Amino acid sequence: MGERYLIACDLDGTLLTGQKTISERTRNVLTTLSALGHKVVIATGRPFHNSIAFYKELQLNTPMINFNGGYVHHPHDPSFPKRIVPIPYPLAKEIIQTAYNHSIANIQVEALNQCYLEMGEDNFSFLSKMTETHCVMGPVLDHLQEDPNCLVFYSPRKEPIDHLCETLMTEYKEEVKFHRWGPPWNAIEVVPQAVNKAIGLKYVAEYLHIPQEKIIAFGDQVNDFEMIEFAGYGIAMGNAIDRLKQLANDVTLTNEEDGIAIYLEKFFKL
Asked: Which Gene3D superfamilies does the entry mention (predicted)?
């Protein structure tokens, strides 16, 4: 074959439909390109345990980017030099206590191999279903004993999240950054300052010896900004936020319309 491409796909809102599945057309296109020697990589904010099923479904044998670049690893190759950038445990405890001080009672903490979940209000019981069976339930500070990769805080009201954001920006801006989630939840995800998908993608590309101009990346949300900007071909989904569409090299159809498959079929003339 000619030159290899690295194809990076975000999961939610990009590779996955609204039903959290990979369409048959998209799956077939990606497996065909893998068979031709191109490298398909998942780049997601999700933890490993909540994304490995899609990696297996696509029959991948490539590195994987979890926690928005905070954990880069290879599920099939123990010799791969992992890149792990967690939030130091003392700092995580301090931020969690700050959230309590702002009357935020719903907290999800993700570490490499463990999830910790504290639900202070009944209307956030959906979290226990969303995180499946991998979570230790109960007061987070009673159980957490390791450096986590991300912290997520939820509130039924917007004001506590606003106040937490202000505190993070004034007191912790050198150590962490955050992404806010809009409706239907008031939520904020906190990650280390040195983490984004572009850093993880660059690490993988160098390992695979694929140049930046041969990288195609697909995304839809604010945590895809750096990756879309870094890739030689940064592609926004049709359902992406407007700011990402403005940044991207091109816009494809939505995740419900096989946007990834249709773009790649045209690009590679499949």
From this structure: 3.30.1240.10, HAD superfamily/HAD-like
